[in-house]
Specification:
The complex is a heterodimer of chains A (about 120) and B (about 110).
Chain A (H helix, E strand, L loop, with lengths): L3 E4 L2 E4 L5 E7 L5 E8 L3 E10 L2 E4 L6 E7 L2 E6 L8 E10 L7 E5 L3 E5 L1
Chain B lengths: L3 E4 L2 E5 L4 E7 L7 E6 L6 E6 L5 E4 L2 E6 L4 E6 L8 E7 L7 E2 L3 E6 L1
Parallel strand pairs in B: 2-11
Antiparallel strand pairs in B: 1-3, 3-8, 4-5, 4-9, 6-7, 7-8, 9-10, 9-11
The chains are: A mainly beta (about 120), B mainly beta (about 110).
């Protein structure tokens, strides 16, 4: 999706190894989010950021950490990957759209498919 | 615990038919209710959204119906087309800065 780049797109890693996923935006949006998508659960919020160095936990934050040293970059780290963290990870930003009802909308990246073996 | 419950999990509709997806929420403080559409291999994209001060919003073939007293809202896809085949997510938030999503509905439109 325009303005948001996630890397890598696919990754296979071994249990116990650290993994970092990157989200890069060119929209200069203040809010950034990491979600994971699993069948039957929809998208669940892992962590979010409301500014440089300002982050907070979402509903499924255990085992994950984040960092945001620049407006455009939001990193998600799995400290020690487990099989339960096999998922598709989406980054999103929230930015002003200027529409009447949807002044602020979310834009999602194309996702990172992570497999922990 | 999921704050937004979505049903059905999947549905099949004939071309030209109506697809209906329902969502229910618990938190009465929610004030923003968007629907997202997701195609395979892509991220979700905003389809249509509603605020609780209106009971219905229509954009083209897509309509949101909102029932504040019942804490329910639904998406109607009129004249369904094969290109509408996708997964649809309802969501809700307070001050639209932290979305809670439903589990998703996979819609298949048969030609």
């Amino acid at each position: 999706d325009a303005g948001i780049t996630q890397s890598p797109r696919h990754k296979v890693t071994e249990t116990g190894t650290p993994v970092t996923l990157r989200c890069h935006q060119t929209e200069n949006h203040r809010y950034m989010y990491w979600y994971r998508q699993d069948p039957g659960h929809g998208l669940r919020l892992i962590h979010y950021s409301y500014g440089v160095k300002d982050t907070d936990k979402g509903e499924v934050s255990d085992g994950y950490s984040v960092s945001r040293s620049k407006t455009e970059d939001f990193l998600l780290t799995l400290e020690s990957a487990t099989s339960s963290q096999t998922s598709v990870y989406f980054c999103a930003t929230r930015g002003y759209r200027g529409n009447k009802e949807d002044n602020y909308g979310y834009t999602f990246g194309s996702g990172t498919r992570l497999t922990v073996v | 615990q999921q704050q937004v419950k979505q049903s059905p999990q999947s549905l099949i509709v004939q071309k030209g038919g109506i697809s209906i997806i329902n969502c229910a929420y618990e938190n009465t403080a929610f004030d923003y209710f968007p629907w997202y559409q997701q195609f395979p291999g892509k991220g979700p994209a905003l389809l249509i959204a509603i605020r609780p001060d209106v009971s219905e919003k229509k954009e083209g073939r897509f309509t949101i119906s909102f029932n504040k007293s019942a804490k329910q809202f639904s998406l109607h896809i009129m004249d369904s087309q094969p290109g509408d085949s996708a997964t649809y997510f309802c969501a809700a938030s307070l001050n639209d800065y932290k979305l809670s999503f439903g589990a998703g509905t996979t819609v298949t439109v048969r030609a």
